[in-house]
Amino acid sequence: MALVDWIIIGIYFLFVSGIAIYYSKRAGLNTSEFFLSGRRMSWWLAGVSMVATTFAADTPMAVTELVAENGIAGNWIWWNFALGGMLTVFFFARLWRRCGIQTDVEFVEVRYSGPAAAVLRGIKAVYFGLFLNIIIIGWVSLAMETAIHVLWPDLTIFGQTSFTVGGFTMSAALVVVSLLVIAVSIFALLSGLWGVAVTDVLQFVLAMAGSILMAFFVLRLPEIGGISGLRSQLPAETFQFFPTLGDAPTTAAMFALSIPAFIAFIGIQWWSSWYPGSEPGGGGYSAQRMMGTASERDATFSALLFTIAHYCIRPWPWIIVALASVVLYPDLTHSREGFIMVMRDVLPVGLLGVVFAAFLAAFMSTISTQLNWGVSYLMNDFWRRFIQTDKEERHYVLISRILTFIVALLSILLATQLESISQAWALIITASAGLGTVLILRWYWWRINAWSELVATLSPIVLVLLTLLGVPVPGIQEPFPSNLFVVVGVTTALWLIVTFVTKPTDQTTLSKFYTLVRPAGPGWYPIASLHPDVTADASIRSMAFQWGTGVALVYSSLFAVGYLILGNILSGVVMLLIAAGSTIYLSQTFSEPSTAKSS
């Protein structure tokens, strides 16, 4: 990169540092300010922050890999999560805000009772806040290492291309990434959620602008020749929006799935598995943002904005760059590198600095959120709950900042051991398969108890560990996502058995939860009958219609943009009409939480 590119990147870092310093005093007041922005965040700020968090260094590279290997239809591995995203909008967003808690793990002891609830809370705090969190930060760091290695293949530090520290070998590129992670951890421990969210807006605008500019410049190349040139140089199957079901394809770019695998994506994965940003029931950092909003309405609209922007606006610049990379670099060993190579080879001086700053913004946005969100579990649901229960707020803020730095260091060490981003994705989805059912039903069925969720959390982890140890568990050795059938089936059978052989949550806790959250549906009838004065939320039927319409809105908008970009005008217009009709229906039926009786 030229001097002007580095100057642009330097200006970006100065701006971000200014935001951290500005919000550091407010974040230091108490843990509510540090982790939830004092519950005063607007819907648009929370929604954009969620989108920016899911736009990491790994996402455009992963999409490039999917498209290069499977065509546009390869994106169904994550497009299917839109079904769960809309479920969060209409069924869960306002309930999260209504709970008045600090983390979604704290929900455990609001919903359940007894020692099992306390054990479950502690396990989930460490599992999600530490182990899963450092895996996520690790694979995002791995993606950033790939980007730096492609841009500077001969990078050395003090004349060395790699370093060994305490048995961990780090490339020079990973050393640079580690320094970035440490810098982001300092930002996160200073600014809290306010600084993270405000910076997310800047980072999302930069990242989207950078992606659009890359798509624009790569299409102008004579070797590409615009959209028509792309279509003439790649097999027609590459541009299909839906996979070809059946046997393995003869064309490498065609995304072919067995029928069971496609059913696993569309019919199982989105509701059964926990995945960051796409949790069934809207947990994780999505719940953190919704709980940090100013009202139930803000929580709901933040989830709606996130779902639409995440699936309808964001993907297409990446897909265009990915398709072009297949034409420009057909023989790459690691196809995900194509995205960075387009950045390196196509963008002019000055603009390269802007786009790389945008790439850094995407990386920093995700890392800062993961650190703030993960440490919120370790602090609120482990340290504050079990270690130091009666200290002043400043003590908890200080420990939160120390934990932020520790999690960052552990993530760097893990990044030295990871080799594949897609493997990490599949591992997390499989290791949580079956848990999603409990995360959904615990809101709408009184009989779910702490033992149900504990078994649903641990069972898929045990099954995955057995597989990794070479124990032949029938069906689990199947390739992802076909293995989900067995993992979900076994996990579901186990938690159902445990639910009915253990005692339910005590009636006092159930009554308190019901009067606080006011969930709808027949699943709460035994408790609702004890509280005739409590008006339940909107009916299950009305929310189901809104969910179905919301799903139609997302997919019709997603396909409309794609069809129009690819020159299929008629199909694009039809999709736009469906999207418009869905929008009109939702605007007429969805407002403040309903006062309708439970049904």
Layout of secondary structure:
Elements: H1 3-27, H2 31-36, H3 43-54, H4 58-70, H5 76-79, H6 82-99, H7 107-111, H8 115-151, E1 162-165, E2 168-171, H9 172-219, H10 226-233, E3 244-245, E4 256-257, H11 259-272, H12 284-291, H13 296-313, H14 315-328, H15 337-346, H16 351-387, H17 393-415, H18 421-430, H19 435-444, H20 450-468, H21 484-501, H22 507-517, H23 525-528, H24 540-565, H25 569-589
Parallel strand pairs: 3-4
Antiparallel strand pairs: 1-2
Helix pairs in contact: 1-9, 1-16, 3-9, 3-12, 3-13, 3-16, 4-14, 4-15, 6-13, 6-24, 8-9, 8-15, 8-16, 8-17, 8-20, 9-14, 9-16, 9-17, 12-13, 13-24, 14-15, 16-17, 19-20, 20-21, 24-25
Description:
- The protein is mainly alpha-helical and 599 residues long.
- The chain has helices at 3-27, 31-36, 43-54, 58-70, 76-79, 82-99, 107-111, 115-151, 172-219, 226-233, 259-272, 284-291, 296-313, 315-328, 337-346, 351-387, 393-415, 421-430, 435-444, 450-468, 484-501, 507-517, 525-528, 540-565, 569-589, and strands at 162-165, 168-171, 244-245, 256-257.
- A hairpin with a 2-residue loop joins strand 1 and strand 2 (168-171).
- The radius of gyration is 24 Å and the shape is globular.
